[in-house]
Amino acid sequence: MEQPNSDRFDRQSGLVPMDRLKTTWATIIGVGSIGRQVALQLTALGVPKLQLIDPDSVALTNITSQAYFADDVGRPKVHATGDICHQLEHRLDLTTVVDRYRRSYDTGPNVFCCVDSIGTRAAIWRAVGARCQFWADGRMLGETARVLAAAGDAGRRHYATTLFPEAEAQSGSCTSRSTVYAANLAAALMVHQFVRHLRGDSLDPDALFNLDAGEYVVLPLAA
Q1: From CA 215, how far away is CA 207, in angstroms rounded?
Q2: What is the pLDDT of residues 105-161, one digit of tens each?
Q3: Do the Cβ atoms of 197 and 151 come closer than 8 Å?
Q4: Which stretches within 145-179 are classed as H helix?
Q5: 186 and 147 in contact (C-beta within 8 Å)?
Q6: Residue 17: other Cβ atoms inside 10 A
Q7: Strands (DSSP E) along 98-183, which ranges?
Q8: Which CATH number is associated with domain 16-218?
Q9: What does the alpha-carbon distance between residue 28 and residue 40 come to, in Å, rounded to a whole number?
Q10: Distance in Å from the first CA to the final CA of the chain
Q11: Is the full-model pTM beyond 0.90?
Q12: Where in the chain are the domains?
């Protein structure tokens, strides 16, 4: 049993700068396979305020692929995810938006883009990319994922080169083939880049992992 005066953040002390974490907040756009895990990890980490944006409700297939509960089926994903976040931290300042992202929405200084369409990513980037302080994007297909992060000018320029036309995307949505364990790993890499940003460390702007091949590669910045 924890002691009454124990600090829940003791074990991440020295890794996560709590002074910076407690004065910032984040928007997560899309709380499916990756976004739901990002929301839970950020809450556990100690982010004081979250905004969740997603128009969808929980489907039966989301239980295995996105770790929703059976009782969540039919509920808006942002509400189901928000409930778990509040169980992790009762004092969390939480805003849930049952809608797709729109330019009229104010977003946080840290944006986690977890949508399943390259066209939607491009539209969101055009709207918020220049004004957010930190940006992370997770793309997953089966056991392969690509995690992109941008904070400085070089990272932003590189990210823009990864937004190819929708017609060039692989058939099916980004998460049409997905597993919860790959989503957890992709989310962890996104949150890790966020923590590096808080520490003032350099980011890995473009990383690719393939679990089946046992590969993890940090790709070079575009010339």
Answers
A1: 10
A2: 999 999 999 999 999 999 999 999 999 999 999 999 999 999 999 999 999 999 999
A3: yes
A4: 153-161
A5: yes
A6: 14
A7: 110-113, 134-141, 144-150
A8: 3.40.50.720
A9: 11
A10: 54
A11: yes
A12: 16-218
